[in-house]
User: Fold this.
Amino acid sequence: MHPLADPDQSFRVSADRYGANQFFPLHTHVTLQVVFSMDSSLTASTPADEWQVPPQSMVWIPPHQQHGLSVARNCRVFSVHFPSHGLPTPDDCSVSQVSPLVVELVAYLARADRAVDAARQSCLENLIREELQGVGARPRGMQLPLDRRAARVARAILAEPANPRTLHDWACEVGACERTLSRVFERQTGLTFKKWQQRSRLLRAVELLRQGMPVTEVALTVGYESVSAFIAVFRKEYGVTPGAYTAEARPCAGGRWTAVKAGAPH
Assistant:
């Protein structure tokens, strides 16, 4: 469990296994932190905001920023802490795609059975910094609405992406006017309800594809009656078909990850 205030200012990396729905309450670090998972979406939160971080995307957490984190599925979560000088430090938490090189470097340094001398660690740390400078922080991942009623709907959809309920059905469920609920989603997430629901389905689809589930089964699991419709939506969002995505993102020998061409949702 993370402490509420972490005073450690040193560069450090970790790769820890977390259980489904494990939650870490609000806490702070004095360092800049980046966190990512290759297998599961993460939910990052601050006192004023909350959003979904897709697999293969990293969340940037500025020094002294109060934040919490939860994981959707059993997964390994990578974390890097380092002094922020020399790196683009966002004013608030933000998201960018994680590069395969950063994944490899962090995984290498995080291995408990691997002793790394100071000179080599410094070299690898600088390489991680250079790679992160090239990426930079970008707009957030899929944001969650803060409105109590809309948030209830959003969490239900994330828990069951294939749920066929319409916006009207959800409005009745949470005691809101359909038009009001629609406006809240668009104002607080930047997406229409339909687009937000589609993104949530694709978010889960990415997780399932990374777990090796066949494309047809993934399509049905996340709520598409037509596999061709799922493929078309996936290609439009990520620039590749689900099959190509799976081939490009699969683990290779030794558990390492190959390069992924598809971009993260934004």
User: Anything to note?
Assistant: The chain has nine helices and eleven strands. The radius of gyration is 19 Å.
